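Could someone model inosinic acid with this protein?
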Amino acid sequence: MSTTVIVGAQWGDEGKGKIVDLLTPSADFVVRYQGGANAGHTIVVNGCKTVLHLLPSGILRENVTSVIGNGVVIDPEVCLSELELVKSKGYLKDSSRFVISAYAHVVMPYHKLIDKLREEGAGDNKIGTTIRGIGPCYEDKVARLGIRMCDLVDEKIFRERLLAVLPQKNLYIERVLDHKPFAFDEIFAPYLKSGRELKKYVSDSAKLLNNALESGKKILFEGAQGTALDVDHGTYPFVTSSTTVASGAASGSGVGPNAIRQVVGVAKAYTTRVGSGPFPTELNDETGELLRKKGVEFGATTGRPRRCGWLDLEVLKRSKMVNGLTGLALMKLDVLTGLKKIKVAVEYNNAGAPVYKEFDGWKEDISKIDSVEKLPNNAVKYLKFIESSLNLPVMILSLGPERGSSVMIKNPFSVK
Ligand code: IMP
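Reply:
Sure, complex below.
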């Protein structure tokens, strides 16, 4: 069985989209298994940037089938507009290469409104969500009040479900959030239309993927967000509402956990975070500002400036543990070029503050380098220190946004 899970090893925005895009030629299927349109996966092909929030990044390669698994929450409007976008750029010529799980839950207008109103009313306790309705949609899934894709594409069932659920949502919106309720028709007609347009993509994706595994096909699982945003293992309550760690690839797609072979953690050579919550190595100074500018650290989904700081090995060690990482993809090493000194948090002291090890920087342009041996000595020292501290190989090194600016040290699909 040849499968690889790509997970964010930090707080998201590590560059998973680029890694998935690089590995897609080695795969037959690319599967998203959690999250929704809160993700922001940026892929640059021939200088042309495509940002996808919901569709698997694999959709930009013709040789694969892209799957949205049951663990994802789907905003039909975003799904349709991204499909239109990729088709307008000449991708997805064959519609049968895109599949949506019948069991994936649908993000409804009331989820987005509830997300927004709660954040607006939270004052200092804001989570800093993307306001895409993700949390409220997963809440309804667990509360058994959700509407799934298989419900949406069947007019009779959709009507029955919405009639049953909407009064409960409206009661909460009116009484607790003090807002005007939704009229049934304001939701039903446009969603039914979207459902009709998406119907041809909806099927039993768990069966499809298990059949694929049986016939020796290769599957790449594309995680969204990051380990420190996982609802169980992240910096709760400042987390997203899904299982972002590698085990989510099994439950969120319907393959057994023993089908997972390689787990590659994607980590920047420094750390960023959007939204509220703990960030021990955050830099609120000019170095932080420099990383933000040079690394273009602004949210792909919300445009918010990302908080920036030094690499935190405690975060990565925990990430290795809870994901069962077998390798790393180290991103944006080029952003550190020009810094005199580079710090890495190696542990936290008794007061919980990071303890740093300091490295000398390098000045040479590394963005066009095609092998680790050609890196300046100080960059090699930095990379080797990360590998040895984590006891994990760096499998892929990324030195710029383009497909070409990366070094494939070991393709996880080639590991026996
Ligand atoms: P939600 O996923 O929109 O509910 O947001 C919950 C938390 O996860 C917030 O701190 C968001 O900023 C963060 N978050 C959600 N999606 C992403 C992402 O793709 N990258 C980085 N942070 C994210």
